[in-house]
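Lab notebook page, bench 4
Experiment: in silico fold of construct C2
Operator: M.H.
Input chain length: 380 residues
Purpose: comparison with the prior construct
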Amino acid sequence: MTDTLAAPPPKTKSQALRSYDVADFPALTGLEEEWRFTPLKRLRGLTGEVVGGPAPAIGHTGLPAGITVSTVDKSDPRIGSVLTPFDRISALAYGRATTASLVSVAADTVLAEPVVLRVVGEDAGTVAFGHTFVEVGRFAEATIVLEQTGAVTLADNVEVALADGAKLTFVTVADWAADAVQAQHVRFRLGRDARVTHVQVTLGGDLVRQFTSVEYTERGGEAELYGLYFADAGQHLEHRQLVDHSVPDCRSYVGYRGALQGEGAHTVWVGDVLIQVQATGTDTYEINRNLVLTDGARADSVPNLEIETGEVAGAGHASATGRFDDEQLFYLMARGIPEAEARKLVVRGFFAELINKISVEELRERLGASIEDRLAKAGA
């Protein structure tokens, strides 16, 4: 009898398994490196136990000329052209979503105002699978906000394709109801000289796990990924990125900031940047900062760089997790500011840089108010 040896693990992120077929991904145990932080029992059937139904539809109150929102069949050749699932839940979402929402920005369109799209969940007791495809035409410029609210148990994939010279600011807001669960994969593909700024805001939900990946197809691509998250007692908020530099002369920046308070609040940030051997001239940096406001909260932060060529313009990473700065608090209180207000000012300042990257004033104000409400409820 001949022993069968297990296949060796992939050497780099670029060699990791990718497949549209969920059967290629074994059942999850929680021992896998990419799942070791995630409480699998709280995923409510998103790992494959339940067949599920369609995701809530994307809604809007009106669209300017040059952008359309429609529903297409999964047989549309665009679906799956950007994103090949990296994990079991993403593959399940791809296979079980029967239709996809298509958001199209026509070539040469320059949208003067942000476009706000909304997904509103109504039932956390029903498992749902969804798919969205966003295409931005050649030399088009747009700001798109995707707001996600309500109650859901949702696994979904979002594909974003930027043609040559396109510029997109994509703001995703996960402000789900307290009992919501979401596992989402957002995939960007950038053409020559294309630029994307992604601002990912995560506030609501019982468990939210968001994976963001970036692919460059030509020189000159630029990706800036920003994240803002605030976990209350019992919440699990997890963010992962993979920026795959596979062509020369492209740039990326990843900057995520999170705050935590309350017993059992848990945040996870894992940032992976891969610079392949042919990606000379790459300029990349990633940083994660976490502010722990109370006892009983936990932040895990893991930055990773894989560099296969020495001919880069720059490459670095950083991570910092710390408690509330009592010196800052004392400084403000010494100038007559009450303690509760001083705490709000410190946290507001911690998030200010990221909130200011959102061009929708009403949304900026609402996020600031939501953060202050959380501090007030905790007795800050």
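Observations: The longest strand covers residues 115-136. The helical segments are 88-96, 326-333, 339-355, 361-377.
Next step: discuss at group meeting.
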